[in-house]
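Researcher: Re-running this chain for the archive, since the previous output was lost when a drive failed. Same request as before.
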Amino acid sequence: MDWSDYAILAASLIVGYLLGSIPFGLILTRYAGLGDIRAIGSGNIGATNVLRTGRKGLAAATLLLDALKGVVAVLLASLISREAALAAALGAFLGHLFPLWLGFRGGKGVATYLGTLLAAFWPAGLIFAAVWLAAAFLSRRSSVGALAASIAGPVALFAFGENTAGWLYAVMTLLLWWKHRENIGRLIAGTEARIGAKK
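Model: Regenerated structure tokens:
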């Protein structure tokens, strides 16, 4: 790789970050007249916390848009190269976790992770989605679904021979688990809220 290749990767990472940092949960809830979602429930800007407002439609829209920003970032960069697409995937994920506009305090990244994975390698994305839905349904806890699916994602990539992507998503999984550290503590203590519960 020469300097131009590194420049392309850096640009893809930055564009992905800017797309990923759009706080759709915050934007939608404010537009709906619900105030600042960060003052509700867990204080998170993601779909699970939006659901705590009782507005299922807004929660679904947040989930979709948070996933789509990851899809768009990866598909745009994929027009350049596979490596650029993976850089954009990481950028979009980091943007959601640490958005510049919100003092680097963002969401937990599950929907954006899924969106980037579907765009980067859709079979692994489908496996992620299936594990997420199954684990969340069985446990009635969104965090359980997210944690289980985030393990399934890189495992699926490695199983399909997508080793470079597998290592990238393994790092993203570690970040996702770190963002869920309080949820993990509550799961251990048996106090984690069920899906749809209002705090």
